[in-house]
Structures are given as structure tokens and as C-alpha cells.
């Protein structure tokens, strides 16, 4: 159906907080390496680990951009690279209602765990540098969900979807961090079929 996380804060010299530096790992570091590679500044494999080669590439980028050369990918460096990451919103009624609506539209008829899983994918995207930083931003991202354009998003919401949304917002992720899902019987999209499947729940394959 669909085509379509964060390092702990550290402080350098008691000044600006930095998100990624030597020793960091994760999806943000992967995004940093990919952006640097696009600019021809990082010429080794993308690993998601912030090692010496990444530090040197960040230094080169900072020099180019006129940013203080620290070798640490702090807020100014991330912004210049075009990388931003949101945080999971709280389980307010408004957020539950919005998430439930897309869960119902995308996963109506799926097992309950599968409904929670769809909600978790949406929340995982908020924390991923490749997607918008808010719940609404992810849900309404252009071309992301067929249910937005075919009218299913405006259909009555299944009761189970509200509970699934609450569980997802409270931290249950049956996918283990996935950012994509699709129904192989309903899409022939080559990109989706190329993604390694992490788990299968109901009719959906969940992948990264």
C-alpha cells in the first residue's frame, strides 16, 4: 500500500549540543554519510558508524560551508546537510485520532498486531531523517499513502484502530523499527519489492 531513529545528546566544550560524533551509530549517521557521499566528500562505504573517515568528511564539509570545524555533526552541520529528525508525539486525543484514521484506512481488516505495526511505521518515520518531522507531516506527505488520495482516509474509523494508535504512541513496535510496509498482492512497485523483509504481519511485509 505504501511507498514509502536518534543519538543521545552530548556537549562539546559546554556549548551547543551535538547529535553525532566519533563513536555514534544509527540512522542519523547513515543519513550524514549519504549526504556527504552525494557531495563527493565521503568516498567509502556507508556503514551508519561515525568513525574517523566520517569525521574527516564532516570537517571538509564544515570548511566548505563556513561552519566551525569541529568534526562533530551538530545542529548547524545537520541543517546545512538538510537533515532533520522529529520526536514521537505524546498520546493526546488529537494524535490518537489522527493516527487511528490512517491506521484504519491502511490496515482495516488486518490482525490487531498488524494495525499497531502500521502505526509504528508511521511513528518511526518521524524519527527518521528521510521523512517529515511531525505526525501530520508523515501522514500527509505527498504520495506516501494511497489511502489519502483514494478517499479511504475519510471513511469511518474502525474501533480497533484507536486502541492500536494508542499502543503505538505508547511505544509498542511489532516491526522492530521498520519505516516501510506494503501488501505484495496490491503493489508491483519495484522499490518496495527490493526492500529486505524484516517481518510479515497479516497481508503486509514490513521492511527498511
What would the keywords be for this entry?
8% strand; mainly alpha; 5 strands; Arc Repressor Mutant, subunit A; two-stranded antiparallel sheet; 2 domains; 9 helices; three-stranded antiparallel sheet; 208 residues; disordered N terminus; Muramoyl-pentapeptide Carboxypeptidase, domain 1
Write the layout of secondary structure elements.
Blueprint: E1 10-11, E2 17-18, H1 27-38, H2 52-65, H3 75-81, H4 93-107, H5 112-126, H6 135-139, H7 146-149, H8 159-169, E3 180-182, H9 190-194, E4 197-201, E5 204-207
Antiparallel strand pairs: 1-2, 3-5, 4-5
Helix pairs in contact: 4-5, 4-8, 5-8
Structure description:
- With 208 residues, this protein is mainly α.
- It has two domains: 10-81, PGBD-like superfamily/PGBD (Muramoyl-pentapeptide Carboxypeptidase, domain 1), CATH 1.10.101.10; 93-207, Cell wall hydrolase SleB, domain 1 (Arc Repressor Mutant, subunit A), CATH 1.10.10.2520.
- The chain has nine helices and five strands.
- It has helices at residues 27-38, 52-65, 75-81, 93-107, 112-126, 135-139, 146-149, 159-169, 190-194; strands spanning 10-11, 17-18, 180-182, 197-201, 204-207.
- The strands form two sheets. Strands 3-5-4 form a three-stranded antiparallel β-sheet, covered by helices on one side. Strands 1-2 form a two-stranded antiparallel ribbon.
- The radius of gyration is 19 Å and the shape is elongated.
- The chain starts with 9 loop residues before the first strand and ends with a strand.
